[in-house]
Write a structure and sequence with these properties.
The chain has about 240 residues and is α/β, with parallel strands linked by helices. The protein has a single domain (about 10-245), classed as Rossmann fold, CATH 3.40.50. The protein has helices spanning about 50-55, 80-90, 105-115, 120-135, 150-160, 180-195, 210, 235-245; strands at about 10-20, 25-35, 40-45, 65-70, 75, 90-95, 170, 200-205, 215-220, 225. Strands 6-7-8-3-9-10 form a six-stranded mixed sheet, with helices on both faces. The two termini are about 15 Å apart. It binds adenosine-5'-triphosphate. Adenosine-5'-triphosphate binds near residues 21, 48, 52 and 206. Adenosine-5'-triphosphate binds near residues 21, 24, 44, 49 and 206. Pfam families: ABC_tran.
Length: about 240
Amino acid sequence: MYAMAPPDNDVLWARSLHYSLGKSVVLSDVSLSVREAEILALVGPRGSGKTALMHCLSGQAVAQQGEVWFNSGPVHTMTAAQRERLRRERFGWIDPEPGLVPELTAWENAALPLLLRGVSHRAARTSAMEWLERLDIGGSARKRPYALTQSQRQRIAIARSLVTTPSVLFADEPTASLHRADGAQVLRTLMAAVRSHGITVLLATHDTEVAALADRTVALLDGRRVGTAAPTTGAEGVAECSLSV
Ligand SMILES: Nc1ncnc2c1ncn2[C@@H]1O[C@H](COP(=O)(O)OP(=O)(O)OP(=O)(O)O)[C@@H](O)[C@H]1O
């Protein structure tokens, strides 16, 4: 028989992912659904498979077994070029470290995804500036990364991930490299921004305080889903149960 299609109201849906890298089993039988505009925290200790799961969900990697669907279309059967296009056009990604281009200014770094799409210089600059201002670094827009603090650089990387207003934002320990107070402030700004744009977020973290900002939490341990952490509202847990097959 044909594989079952995912529920319509899920933006991302993964079923029975088994993923190995070399001899190590990184994900075992992981299933997950993410609803439109939901902020879902992926929690677990280092090495539990959070990054690997986000790689599979975003089409950066393809699990050896299992399915990934985005907006009711299969991702696991796409070619590498189709998956690249999907990531460029629909997804945003934040790494723990900013990864900026040292030769470009803050606004040029933030505008890069738009410039590479062929958006005009002026329009790209306007959008980048809006996001930089929202992240409280508009005043540093003309500076290069070496002249900025790590916290400012990470804000630029966050602005770059949002400048295309992606459908789904994958945030991998987005504030792990920041001091605590700084990280908390950046995270609050990020959460407010994604909520106001209805962006769906997967937030990988080993920090329970960070995860507490999400709508729902999925816990991983050694590549497996473990008892879903207590949801902040009872309804989330119920909704999740009713979706499982
Ligand atoms: N290229 C690789 N080859 C073999 N094993 C790998 C490779 N990359 C990651 N792994 C293993 O996969 C497992 C999951 O790693 P992953 O980075 O997804 O975990 P994580 O929960 O995101 O941890 P962290 O918080 O450290 O990023 C780990 O046991 C890791 O050692």
